[in-house]
């Protein structure tokens, strides 16, 4: 950085010369003007860090000069010290209101003026540093927002499309990440043997790291569902991949299911995930079972469960972002409330409307998946 630039403005030539001499002795780069108009003409050519200006001048006075340089961005907001013979509190307040940073009354002590200019120069330097950092932060923020937007688009591409998975089975879903990208992930796929496998997972935390792990889980599920027919083996494969690619601090709750249309069965495992729902004949059945979070140990302690299914049954998958949401009174949405709504309604848009009626503030990702077992050709 070069010398600090100071502009002295006063219609008394003697004062201008005295201040110029003393300021140059302090190694300031000093410019002078004998009127507000001359000062503005000079400021069209150069930017200064500090302005020391008389208040009472013909044509463009100190008040007008201060207002102009403080309100127009091209002048770079110089530190403005007002010199005046007015000593009333009201006049000082008026000067500060229009943007003056400091106020010195005449007759002044040159040493005081020098000290005020030195202080103003330090403040201006600090302001410039803050401004530069803010510009850098804004650039970084813009870059991160773009990257998060691209990451969000990528994550959305991992979510299965709504509609038919097979002629008999279809999916609908709601996915609302807490901060554009999240740690919830789900998928559904037809297996080589004709069964349909699905999973839902919730990664601890939010943001980019959680989203990356969610992508790993999706890839692992795709591979596992092609290789293995049982939910247990699929879960073991996902757990193994998770342990090999993440740190010890990253845990995941998981639910994996496989629908067998020939034997009218749903097999599933639950690893630290909330109990999911099967809606059959208008009633909600909780799909429970033992099992701890995955990503902790390679010895996955889970047990596979089995339940019969019927035509027009619906499997509901969700994450705890819904059930742990709170309203303004601090009341949890809760599992029972979700069950009651799903008992009455099948349309996810209507379900979401009731959730948002309870609360519009969500601290966690919101995921609700509906898997409909069709009646046309299945069963």
Automatic annotation (TrEMBL):
CDD domains the UniProt entry points to: REC_OmpR (cd17574)
Keywords of the record: DNA-binding, Hydrolase, Phosphoprotein, Transcription, Transcription regulation, Two-component regulatory system
GO terms of biological process kind: phosphorelay signal transduction system
InterPro entries named in the record: Bact_Sigma-Reg, CheY-like_superfamily, PPM-type-like_dom_sf, PPM-type_phosphatase-like_dom, Sig_transdc_resp-reg_receiver
UniProt xrefs under Gene3D superfamilies: 3.40.50.2300, PPM-type phosphatase domain (3.60.40.10)
GO molecular function: DNA binding; phosphatase activity
SMART domains linked to this entry: PP2C_SIG (SM00331), REC (SM00448)
This protein's record includes keyword Phosphoprotein: yes
Domain Response regulatory: 5-121
4-aspartylphosphate modification, residue list: 54
Full protein name: Phosphoserine phosphatase RsbU/P
Provenance organism: Thermotomaculum hydrothermale
